[in-house]
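Hey,

Quick one before I head out. I ran the complex with KG4 overnight. Inputs first:
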Amino acid sequence: MRRSLLQSIWSPPCRRAFSTKPDGRPLLVLGLESSADDTCASIVSSDRKILSNVVLKQHKIHEAYGGIHPLHAQEAHQVNMPLAIKQALEEAKVALSDLDGIAFTRGPGMYGCVGVCAGAAKALAAASGKPLLGVHHMQAHALTPFLTAHPNTSQPTPSFPFLTLLLSGGHTLLLLARSLTSFRILATTHDESIGASFDKAARDLKIPWALGAGSPGAALEQFAFPPLPSPPSPDEATLPSDPKFTLPFPRQLAFSYAGLRSALTRILANEPPDTMSDARKRQVASAFMRAAVRQVEEKVEVGLRTVETEFGTEQGGERVRGLVVSGGVASNMFLRERLRAKLDALGYADMPLIFPPPHLCTDNAAMIAYVGLLRLERNRIDPLTVMQRAKWSIEECEAEFEAGEAGAKSS
Ligand code: KG4
Ligand code: ZN
């Protein structure tokens, strides 16, 4: 980008100047996302306006398989991606020639699925000559609260350093975020993710995905904690006691959800879901969700204590200035309530607890376009030959550019 030609406008969320086009209008980036089962395209401007945000869902294909079927997902992305791009441009009233960059999820995610948004973005960038920006999907989830902060929502702007929980279908991460590009992993899952455990629990308890508008995790939440209390059922008087789920890795920085699911499998072996009363099923579903969330609460406590006592200047501790929670599971209202209660109980009543709005917690391309804009600002452009990555640590999200820039400085 020709920086000398660009003027600057104030961008409060990052307390840094964003560039504009030479005529002073904000920059525009198209974002594409297809790492799991949603095909997404969005246009975001450098004054943090989401001009369009298209999400084409595929759950009707996958529900029959009890989870995302990778080949069917890839094929559906191939059908839907051109439609999503067309719709995003039309809704934003933007032409390809108006764009300043093309961003896409480069990874991590299902290789064939990520290949669809990567291929579409590379073709658009090659044909239009616009800069190409291959974005780290989890970095995009982590930075979404900057896009959605005040005045777009009532949420405050996060201040570094903050703790980040990224809870999705593929990840369960507790991170320390020190800057837009510096993330340190404090805890990850030793087996499956919290989102996958919700998806499989919904499948095993035979809860229809439609209850959560196509998301099995949201369906489990709606079933376990119905917004309107259900009328008393005659079965309730005879319910057995709540199932007990143990907390894995107590007082350690490690998540695990496999044990919770094995415990559920054992319950269902004795009480098949087809013969269970709704009241009992609800009891089991809510005990499962409470146990899953209790684990998140406990890891936040251990993470806060660790960073505030063992990190930072000469290990005197580093003051954490907020907790940011994102990824699909962060749209769970029960989790939101529990985390606020936990921070308050730990004496952190003043600590900001920040969630993007639920529709921007789940996969979307607005977060990809936004991180694309942040990358464009720093001139971190990918070559047209860049390839998607199935696995990619968030600690390395911009490492390739950092290594190149360090080399250029020292030579
Ligand atoms: O971030 P995301 O949309 O996609 C991935 O990157 O994986 O997260 C999807 C996950 C799925 O496991 C989905 O069931 C779960 O988020 N999810 C929820 C809720 N909404 C989505 N889990 C619990 N409660 C919800 N309300
Ligand atoms: Zn995601």
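The pocket of KG4 (ligand 1) is lined by residues 36, 168-170, 195, 198-199, 215-218, 221, 327-329, 331-332, 362-363 (CB under 6 Å).

Talk tomorrow,
K.
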